[in-house]
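Please, why this fold?
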Amino acid sequence: MDHSYSNTKPHQKGKHLKLNDRTTIQELHSKGYSNRAIARELNCSPSTVGYELKRGTVSVYTGNVKRYKAVEGQSTYELHRSECSRKSLFLRRHKFIDYVSHCFHNQGWSLDACVGYALDKGIFQKDQVVSTKTLYNYVDLGLMDIKNGDL
């Protein structure tokens, strides 16, 4: 296949594949092109094509035949992409934040007192606790059930 008359921009190395790239892979793979030939057409690595073929291959005809489907590859990519980000400190330290909320509402402690008491009594380790400043930021952002007026 020659792109001399094509008006579409070829895939850039180092970038993620798009659905139209996956469609090209599906078409060329069904015609019997090798991974290296497909990669040449898309301007990407042959291993990228191999990984994509593995990712998007599904069973058809009651599981007897396996074929690559571009839509399946795209949905798998989107699922993996949605799960790949770093979890926020708020989500990773939810037990401590629940503890702070409980102490604030039931014992009437300040946020700083909750942090100090938890560290002093060894209820939470240092790596399980967020700072007082961070707790006040969470209150300002509305992430906790404590409101600024309650402070």
Observations:
- Residues 94-107 form the longest helix (14 residues).
- Helices lie at 19-30, 35-42, 46-56, 70-82, 89-92, 94-107, 111-120, 132-141.
- Residues 19-82 form one domain.
- The radius of gyration is 26 Å.
